Automatic annotation (TrEMBL):
InterPro entries: PPM-type-like_dom_sf, PPM-type_phosphatase-like_dom. Pfam families: PP2C_2. The lineage of its organism: Bacteria, Pseudomonadati, Pseudomonadota, Betaproteobacteria, Burkholderiales. This is Putative Serine/threonine protein phosphatase. It comes from Thiomonas delicata (Thiomonas cuprina). Residues 9-250 form the PPM-type phosphatase domain.
Protein backbone atom coordinates (compact mmCIF):
# COMPACT_ATOMS: atom_id res chain seq x y z
CA UNK A 1 0.00 0.00 0.00
CA UNK A 2 1.30 3.45 -0.93
CA UNK A 3 1.71 5.60 2.19
CA UNK A 4 -0.33 8.82 2.26
CA UNK A 5 1.52 11.93 1.17
CA UNK A 6 2.50 14.00 4.25
CA UNK A 7 0.61 17.23 4.67
CA UNK A 8 2.54 20.33 3.74
CA UNK A 9 2.51 23.23 6.15
CA UNK A 10 2.06 26.67 4.64
CA UNK A 11 3.54 30.00 5.64
CA UNK A 12 2.05 32.93 3.76
CA UNK A 13 2.23 36.70 3.69
CA UNK A 14 1.03 39.55 1.51
CA UNK A 15 2.44 43.01 0.90
CA UNK A 16 1.11 46.08 -0.87
CA UNK A 17 2.37 49.63 -1.39
CA UNK A 18 1.01 52.64 -3.26
CA UNK A 19 4.43 53.44 -4.68
CA UNK A 20 4.67 57.00 -5.97
CA UNK A 21 1.15 57.06 -7.41
CA UNK A 22 -1.62 59.27 -6.04
CA UNK A 23 -3.91 56.31 -5.49
CA UNK A 24 -3.79 52.54 -5.04
CA UNK A 25 -5.23 50.33 -7.80
CA UNK A 26 -3.56 47.02 -6.86
CA UNK A 27 -5.43 44.45 -4.80
CA UNK A 28 -3.98 41.30 -3.22
CA UNK A 29 -5.75 38.67 -1.11
CA UNK A 30 -5.24 35.15 0.22
CA UNK A 31 -8.44 33.23 0.94
CA UNK A 32 -8.85 30.08 3.02
CA UNK A 33 -11.67 27.78 2.00
CA UNK A 34 -14.66 27.85 4.39
CA UNK A 35 -15.08 24.05 4.42
CA UNK A 36 -11.80 22.42 3.32
CA UNK A 37 -8.82 22.77 5.66
CA UNK A 38 -5.58 23.65 3.89
CA UNK A 39 -7.22 24.72 0.61
CA UNK A 40 -6.18 28.26 -0.31
CA UNK A 41 -6.59 30.76 -3.13
CA UNK A 42 -4.23 33.70 -3.67
CA UNK A 43 -5.16 36.49 -6.09
CA UNK A 44 -3.41 39.64 -7.28
CA UNK A 45 -5.18 42.21 -9.49
CA UNK A 46 -3.62 45.34 -10.98
CA UNK A 47 -6.38 47.75 -11.99
CA UNK A 48 -6.22 50.27 -14.84
CA UNK A 49 -8.55 53.02 -15.98
CA UNK A 50 -8.28 56.14 -13.88
CA UNK A 51 -8.54 56.62 -10.16
CA UNK A 52 -11.92 54.99 -9.60
CA UNK A 53 -11.97 52.81 -12.71
CA UNK A 54 -8.81 50.84 -11.98
CA UNK A 55 -9.65 50.26 -8.35
CA UNK A 56 -13.18 49.22 -9.26
CA UNK A 57 -11.85 46.66 -11.74
CA UNK A 58 -9.35 45.21 -9.25
CA UNK A 59 -12.01 45.12 -6.53
CA UNK A 60 -14.29 43.21 -8.88
CA UNK A 61 -11.61 40.57 -9.48
CA UNK A 62 -11.16 40.05 -5.75
CA UNK A 63 -14.90 39.95 -5.05
CA UNK A 64 -15.58 37.50 -7.88
CA UNK A 65 -12.69 35.29 -6.80
CA UNK A 66 -13.93 35.16 -3.21
CA UNK A 67 -17.50 34.30 -4.22
CA UNK A 68 -16.48 31.54 -6.62
CA UNK A 69 -13.94 30.06 -4.22
CA UNK A 70 -16.44 29.98 -1.37
CA UNK A 71 -18.79 27.95 -3.58
CA UNK A 72 -16.05 25.66 -4.90
CA UNK A 73 -16.52 21.95 -4.06
CA UNK A 74 -13.20 20.14 -4.69
CA UNK A 75 -14.81 16.68 -4.69
CA UNK A 76 -17.15 17.70 -7.52
CA UNK A 77 -15.28 20.36 -9.49
CA UNK A 78 -11.89 20.59 -11.16
CA UNK A 79 -9.40 23.30 -10.12
CA UNK A 80 -9.11 24.29 -13.78
CA UNK A 81 -12.83 25.02 -13.89
CA UNK A 82 -12.59 27.31 -10.85
CA UNK A 83 -9.72 29.32 -12.30
CA UNK A 84 -11.42 29.57 -15.67
CA UNK A 85 -14.59 30.84 -13.99
CA UNK A 86 -12.61 33.46 -12.07
CA UNK A 87 -11.10 34.80 -15.30
CA UNK A 88 -14.31 34.64 -17.34
CA UNK A 89 -16.68 36.06 -14.72
CA UNK A 90 -14.28 38.80 -13.57
CA UNK A 91 -13.92 39.88 -17.20
CA UNK A 92 -17.70 39.98 -17.64
CA UNK A 93 -18.37 41.87 -14.41
CA UNK A 94 -15.75 44.51 -15.22
CA UNK A 95 -17.32 45.03 -18.65
CA UNK A 96 -20.75 45.42 -17.04
CA UNK A 97 -19.32 47.88 -14.50
CA UNK A 98 -17.90 49.98 -17.32
CA UNK A 99 -21.40 50.77 -18.56
CA UNK A 100 -21.98 53.11 -15.62
CA UNK A 101 -18.38 54.29 -15.21
CA UNK A 102 -16.75 57.36 -16.71
CA UNK A 103 -13.47 55.53 -17.11
CA UNK A 104 -12.72 52.31 -18.99
CA UNK A 105 -11.88 49.88 -16.17
CA UNK A 106 -9.49 47.01 -16.85
CA UNK A 107 -7.42 44.72 -14.67
CA UNK A 108 -4.79 42.04 -14.77
CA UNK A 109 -5.15 38.91 -12.67
CA UNK A 110 -2.83 36.22 -11.37
CA UNK A 111 -4.35 33.53 -9.18
CA UNK A 112 -3.02 30.41 -7.49
CA UNK A 113 -5.06 27.56 -6.03
CA UNK A 114 -3.05 25.55 -3.51
CA UNK A 115 -4.43 22.19 -2.40
CA UNK A 116 -3.78 20.59 1.03
CA UNK A 117 -1.38 18.03 -0.50
CA UNK A 118 0.71 20.77 -2.10
CA UNK A 119 -0.60 20.51 -5.65
CA UNK A 120 -0.59 24.00 -7.15
CA UNK A 121 -2.73 25.36 -10.01
CA UNK A 122 -2.49 28.84 -11.49
CA UNK A 123 -3.84 31.14 -14.20
CA UNK A 124 -3.15 34.71 -15.29
CA UNK A 125 -4.09 37.50 -17.68
CA UNK A 126 -1.93 40.55 -18.36
CA UNK A 127 1.46 41.19 -16.75
CA UNK A 128 0.84 40.19 -13.15
CA UNK A 129 2.97 37.10 -12.67
CA UNK A 130 3.12 33.76 -10.91
CA UNK A 131 6.56 32.35 -10.05
CA UNK A 132 7.55 29.03 -8.49
CA UNK A 133 11.00 28.69 -6.90
CA UNK A 134 12.78 25.63 -5.53
CA UNK A 135 15.92 26.13 -3.43
CA UNK A 136 16.12 29.65 -4.83
CA UNK A 137 15.98 28.48 -8.46
CA UNK A 138 13.16 29.53 -10.77
CA UNK A 139 11.03 26.59 -11.94
CA UNK A 140 8.05 28.44 -13.41
CA UNK A 141 7.26 31.99 -14.45
CA UNK A 142 4.13 32.96 -16.31
CA UNK A 143 4.55 34.73 -19.63
CA UNK A 144 3.11 38.25 -19.84
CA UNK A 145 0.38 39.25 -22.26
CA UNK A 146 2.27 42.34 -23.39
CA UNK A 147 3.77 44.03 -26.42
CA UNK A 148 7.35 43.60 -25.25
CA UNK A 149 6.76 39.90 -24.47
CA UNK A 150 5.75 39.42 -28.09
CA UNK A 151 9.02 41.06 -29.15
CA UNK A 152 10.95 38.76 -26.80
CA UNK A 153 9.14 35.72 -28.20
CA UNK A 154 9.98 36.86 -31.73
CA UNK A 155 13.66 37.13 -30.79
CA UNK A 156 13.90 40.85 -31.52
CA UNK A 157 14.26 41.91 -27.88
CA UNK A 158 16.11 40.45 -24.91
CA UNK A 159 14.55 40.02 -21.46
CA UNK A 160 16.85 42.76 -20.13
CA UNK A 161 15.95 45.17 -22.93
CA UNK A 162 12.23 44.41 -22.48
CA UNK A 163 12.37 45.45 -18.83
CA UNK A 164 13.37 49.02 -19.76
CA UNK A 165 11.54 49.33 -23.07
CA UNK A 166 9.41 52.52 -23.35
CA UNK A 167 6.36 50.36 -24.21
CA UNK A 168 6.89 47.83 -21.45
CA UNK A 169 3.54 48.76 -19.90
CA UNK A 170 1.49 48.09 -23.05
CA UNK A 171 -0.67 45.00 -22.58
CA UNK A 172 -2.05 42.83 -25.37
CA UNK A 173 -4.76 41.40 -23.11
CA UNK A 174 -6.47 42.24 -19.82
CA UNK A 175 -9.81 41.78 -18.10
CA UNK A 176 -12.60 44.13 -19.16
CA UNK A 177 -11.50 44.78 -22.74
CA UNK A 178 -13.67 44.29 -25.82
CA UNK A 179 -11.90 41.03 -26.66
CA UNK A 180 -12.27 38.02 -24.40
CA UNK A 181 -8.98 37.34 -22.58
CA UNK A 182 -7.04 34.13 -23.20
CA UNK A 183 -7.21 31.46 -20.53
CA UNK A 184 -3.66 30.37 -19.70
CA UNK A 185 -3.20 27.93 -16.83
CA UNK A 186 -0.88 25.23 -15.56
CA UNK A 187 -0.21 23.14 -12.46
CA UNK A 188 2.48 21.17 -10.66
CA UNK A 189 3.00 19.32 -7.37
CA UNK A 190 5.07 21.30 -4.87
CA UNK A 191 7.62 20.01 -2.37
CA UNK A 192 8.60 21.17 1.10
CA UNK A 193 10.74 24.30 0.70
CA UNK A 194 9.12 25.44 -2.55
CA UNK A 195 7.98 29.06 -2.73
CA UNK A 196 5.19 30.54 -4.86
CA UNK A 197 5.26 34.27 -5.60
CA UNK A 198 2.41 36.25 -7.12
CA UNK A 199 3.07 39.92 -7.88
CA UNK A 200 2.13 42.89 -10.01
CA UNK A 201 4.55 44.51 -12.45
CA UNK A 202 5.21 47.29 -9.94
CA UNK A 203 7.28 44.75 -8.03
CA UNK A 204 8.85 42.35 -10.54
CA UNK A 205 10.00 45.21 -12.78
CA UNK A 206 12.84 45.95 -10.34
CA UNK A 207 14.26 42.43 -9.98
CA UNK A 208 15.81 39.64 -11.98
CA UNK A 209 14.60 36.15 -11.18
CA UNK A 210 17.78 35.17 -9.32
CA UNK A 211 17.32 38.09 -6.90
CA UNK A 212 13.74 37.10 -6.20
CA UNK A 213 14.70 33.46 -5.69
CA UNK A 214 17.52 34.31 -3.29
CA UNK A 215 15.36 36.57 -1.12
CA UNK A 216 12.47 34.12 -1.00
CA UNK A 217 14.74 31.20 -0.16
CA UNK A 218 16.59 32.81 2.76
CA UNK A 219 13.77 34.87 4.29
CA UNK A 220 10.44 33.94 5.83
CA UNK A 221 7.38 35.16 3.86
CA UNK A 222 6.68 38.24 5.98
CA UNK A 223 10.35 39.24 5.92
CA UNK A 224 10.63 38.65 2.17
CA UNK A 225 7.58 40.85 1.50
CA UNK A 226 9.06 43.67 3.56
CA UNK A 227 12.50 43.28 1.99
CA UNK A 228 11.28 43.16 -1.63
CA UNK A 229 8.97 46.14 -1.21
CA UNK A 230 11.73 48.20 0.41
CA UNK A 231 14.22 47.27 -2.32
CA UNK A 232 11.70 48.01 -5.11
CA UNK A 233 10.94 51.40 -3.57
CA UNK A 234 14.66 52.17 -3.38
CA UNK A 235 15.23 51.22 -7.01
CA UNK A 236 12.19 53.17 -8.22
CA UNK A 237 13.85 56.45 -7.10
CA UNK A 238 10.55 58.28 -6.78
CA UNK A 239 8.90 56.91 -9.94
CA UNK A 240 7.43 53.67 -8.66
CA UNK A 241 4.06 52.17 -9.61
CA UNK A 242 1.61 50.49 -7.22
CA UNK A 243 3.10 47.18 -6.15
CA UNK A 244 1.71 44.08 -4.51
CA UNK A 245 2.82 40.53 -3.79
CA UNK A 246 1.82 37.31 -2.06
CA UNK A 247 4.37 34.74 -0.89
CA UNK A 248 3.41 31.11 -0.18
CA UNK A 249 6.17 28.95 1.32
CA UNK A 250 5.76 25.25 1.98
CA UNK A 251 7.31 23.11 4.69
CA UNK A 252 6.81 19.55 5.91
CA UNK A 253 4.43 19.11 8.82
CA UNK A 254 2.18 16.52 10.38
CA UNK A 255 -0.13 19.30 11.55
CA UNK A 256 -3.71 19.07 10.37
CA UNK A 257 -4.07 22.65 9.27
CA UNK A 258 -1.92 25.14 7.41
CA UNK A 259 -0.77 28.31 9.10
CA UNK A 260 -2.96 31.34 8.54
CA UNK A 261 -1.63 34.00 6.15
CA UNK A 262 -0.27 37.27 7.47
CA UNK A 263 -0.39 40.64 5.77
CA UNK A 264 2.20 43.39 5.71
CA UNK A 265 1.42 46.88 4.53
CA UNK A 266 4.42 49.19 4.67
Amino acid sequence: MTPPRPRLQLQAATGIHRGDRQYQQDRIEIFTHPRVAGLMLAVVADGMGGRSGGRMAADQVILTSRQLFDRFVPSQEEPLSLLQSIVRESHLMIKLSAISAEQEPHSTVACVLLQPDGHCHWAHVGDSRVHVFRAGRLLVRTKDHSYVQELVDAGTLSETMARNHPMSNVLTSSLGTAEDPPFVSDSMPLKAGDVVLLCSDGLWHYFVDTELGSALDRLEPRESCEFLIAKARQRAVGRGDNLSLAVLKLGRSEARAAAAPHGTRP
